Amino acid sequence: MTDLNLKMIHTTHSLRVRYGETDPMKYVYYGNYAEYLEVARVELFRELGIPYNEIENQGIWLPVSEFSIKYLKPGLYDEILEIHTYIKKLPGVRIEFEYEIYNSSREKITEAKTTLFFLDANTNKVVKCPDFLMSLLKKNWSATL
Description:
By secondary structure, the protein is α+β, with helices and mostly antiparallel strands. It has 3 helices and 8 strands.
């Protein structure tokens, strides 16, 4: 397969729900999901071979411009959640991440999407995905199952 549109990047990260991340019902407080997704994004870059801090050291910031989420079931205190993170198309000036979160019973509990854009830290201007990052993404692009 050589068609990049039939390929993607997919990583998985697990975390345990801490008591302080829950509401009185022991459900994950809805606002904490944004942080869970950020952790998953950072771990995706680490798994590809570049710590997020290195992207910033190269003069690129990645602010979030869009965030959407659909809660299907609650995450619960002390449960191990598995977050699947996908990049399904190569970026231009924006990079889109899609997420699926599964509970300990392997039930999908959340679907989400974030869009970030590439910002030059020195000029504060939107730029295309830098070559060092695009090369890394293409190197790790793999066929969908």
